[in-house]
Transporter YwbF (Virgibacillus oceani), 392 residues
Amino acid sequence: MPNNESLTPLKMLLFCFHATNTIIISFLPLYLKHKGLNGTEIGWVLAVGPLASIFAQPFWGYMSDKYKTVKRMLLICIVGLLISSVLFFQMNGLIAIILMGAVFYFFTSPIGALGDSLAQRRADDLNVSFGGIRMWGSIGFATSSLIVGEVLSKIGVQYMIWPYLLFGTIALLVAFRLTDVKVESDPVQLKDISKILTNRPYIIFLAIIMFLTITHRANDSFIGLYIAQLGGSEGLIGLAWFVGVISEAAVFAFAGFWFRKFHTLIFIMIAGALYSLRWFIYSAVDDPVYIIALQVLHGLTFGIFYLSAFQYITRLIPKLLQSTGHLVFFAVFFGVSGIIGSLTGGALIDSYGGTTLYLLMGFCALIGTIGMIIYHVLPYGKEVPAQRNEQM
């Protein structure tokens, strides 16, 4: 089974990186509060992440395509993650934390995208399910959210750097054993990027899905606050993340069985409709326990949407520019949408409460779903299979 064995380091990398990501997403706000920052200051620090990713994602994607290697870029970024995280956690003043945070996020934000780009290419090369590889990231996220939460509750959030460095070091060790992608073509030039920027179906697709991704990122930022508003504890917030990510892992794991049944845009429309329904139901509940149960929908929304969108843009962009195209998608999903979702979501939940926030998120996702239906009906959605055949 040499093919499956060659994927083991990649699965381990995704597991370890997403385990580190959980630590930052779940516990960095508490760590910064421990450092003495107030809510507004914490918000500024957290906004640095998506802002840095807007620049970092396309940069590292371009470098990967230019030098025809995902593995070397991953190694550079993971080394950068380890060094910058040590420095980041030493900072005390707000300005120092923000500046070092920008450096930290510049190296960390592209790792997930580069890992997924490599997973997509390896899956295509070996004719295996991308979801079967990507689910290991979700398992790492879920495992870390349970174990690290328990550890930090006993030793204190001020020591969160130690589990972070542990998973980061393991990620670096397994990255050396990755099988790189091979692309037989001339080196990418800066002018080649215009092929992505002038690809109308790709740009229109990114613009439409932002109506969905903004709601997803707003939920990432404020589900904990909403559960707290409904009277839930920190334990319930951790459980909500765990249930959501486990359902996501299950969707990824079984992607090989359901994913090729229909056109990828059909799955994106289904995910969009479920996103809208999910947010409308969240806005109507008055007990945080219902939110925990409904987190099962996270797998059916994000899991289906992410797999389908990633597969679709892979078909839309030339093989020469795969990493760049993937990381621009990430910059929109986790960068631009993250900033808009965090800023508008924060203002809405402060002024009108979580119920209004989730109600408006439901309408926003509905607009995105309708936009995707129109996009599918227009010629753009029908061009993809022909383009794919030309590439193959």
Summary: Residues 1-184 form a domain with the Growth Hormone; Chain: A; fold (CATH 1.20.1250.20). Residues 14 and 137 are 5 Å apart (CA to CA). The chain is about 85% helix and 0% strand.
